[in-house]
Sequence to fold (201 residues):
Amino acid sequence: MRHALLQLIDPLPLSDAMQKDKKRRSRPVELLRAVYSAAMLFCIPGLIITFISPTFIIKLDRINQERVDATVTRQLLFLIPAFKETAVDIRDMKSKTMHGKAIREGSRTTGRIVGNAEDEGVLQLNSRSGAPVSLSVSPVNLDDIEEEISSFINESKEPSQHLWVTSNWKFGVLLPGAILLFSLIVFIMAVRSILTGKTLE
Fold:
């Protein structure tokens, strides 16, 4: 009876306590939501961008003194292996740079030029047995990558070597990196809001 009277006289403290208890119970759920939201904020656009402008891992293996194999793995989100090809017993390499065409406004032939498409480098590894393996390499690094592979084949005595290459620094690395940084900032702000109980401003 006394507890009921006290509750009728001053119900607010009990209500506040219940709300605080509810907030404490919901914190793990809110944290999971924050993790999921931040992951989706990065993964969805990141997957699309790195699918269009992927990065590659080239693994060179020295089978014997006369044979070097190259395994090329296409990476999504810098870490996820998506597709793998192997050039068995590399014979030689070919590379070329395709210069980006002019981007025109309206008509493709007579419209006003508003910019130029990105240049694209292509490296082709020709094998003595099997089909050649081609990959997109940023023109900035194309000559260096070709030189490193050639040096490994002809001069190095190491049993293996890994090379990381990107098809486009601007869209394949810098843009996903900026999205990742933004996602981390949003995640940190959300976690801080959940733990402190303060709303985001």
Remarks:
- Residues 1-12 have pLDDT under 50 and may be disordered.
